[in-house]
Design brief:
This protein has a single domain (about 5-220), classed as Spore Coat Polysaccharide Biosynthesis Protein SpsA, Chain A, CATH 3.90.550. It is globular, with a radius of gyration of 16 Å. It contains 9 helices and 7 strands, in the order βαβαβαβαβαβααβαα. The protein has a 7-stranded mixed sheet, sandwiched between helices. α1 (about 15-25) links the parallel β1 and β2 (about 30-35). By secondary structure, it is of the alpha/beta class. The chain has helices spanning about 15-25, 40-45, 60-75, 95-100, 125-140, 155-160, 170-180, 195-200, 205-220; strands spanning about 5-10, 30-35, 50-55, 80, 110-120, 150-155, 185-195.
């Protein structure tokens, strides 16, 4: 199946070149959606062989994902893998996410760091994620072991069923709501998420988590 790895990025030039090169070495097309960066993210990504789309202003990760999905639809990709730009995901694990989609075992495959490995995860992050898992179960009914994990594989058939409206981090919870409301067949697979000093700086704070809940409630 024609597969695209979609990487939303904002001021990620310290890592983006290595991330793009690593994924490209697996023989997969890479799309970087530069969400209004003020550094060399776009030029570095292009030099490393990525397709690059750029927002003129910073709109948020959800908006970058939506832009990438529209590109994938226009260019007839069949599988889209969401992948972070900060280097905390492992490109060698992409295959285990896309295989169930290729084999028609699942429409969506969600990576789980708690079935796999959350290496060097901060205690504060662990607490926020555990609360988010509970929130997800209560609001969607999905019995997940992880949530807000950006490592996912979606079939185009599944992407055609959803309506992504959240421009910022609330999009991650919105995706899970869409899976539940549209009865999309999903599964979790173990993945490794490695937290470095750089990725910790780029990550969400507890205040962002509160904003996510607020945005989802406003939508309702």
């Amino acid at each position: 199946m024609k597969t695209l790895v979609l990487i939303p990025a904002y001021n990620e030039d310290k890592k983006i070149g290595d991330v793009v090169s690593d994924v490209k070495s697996k023989g997969i097309d890479v799309l970087v959606v530069d969400d209004g960066s003020m550094d060399q993210t776009s030029s570095i990504s292009l030099k490393k062989g990525a397709i690059v789309l750029k927002h003129k202003i910073n709109r948020g990760q959800g908006a970058a994902i939506a832009t990438g999905i529209e590109y994938a639809k226009r260019n007839h990709y069949e599988v889209v893998v969401f992948f972070d730009a900060d280097g905390q995901m492992k490109s060698e694990e992409i295959r285990k996410l896309i295989d169930p989609v290729i084999k028609n075992e699942s429409e969506v495959v969600l990576g789980s760091r708690f079935l796999g490995l959350a290496k060097n995860i901060p205690i504060s992050k662990l607490l926020v994620l555990k609360l988010a898992i509970l929130f997800t179960r209560l609001t969607t009914g999905l019995k997940l072991t992880d949530t807000h994990n950006g490592f996912q594989a979606w079939s185009m058939l599944a992407l055609d069923k959803i309506n992504l409206t959240q421009d910022r981090q609330a999009y991650a919870s919105e995706l899970l709501q869409e899976i539940s409301e549209n009865n999309i067949k999903y599964k979790e697979v173990p993945v490794t998420i490695e937290y470095t000093d750089y990725s910790k700086q780029k990550g969400q704070s507890i205040f962002n988590a509160i904003n996510i809940v607020f945005n989802l409630l406003i939508k309702k």
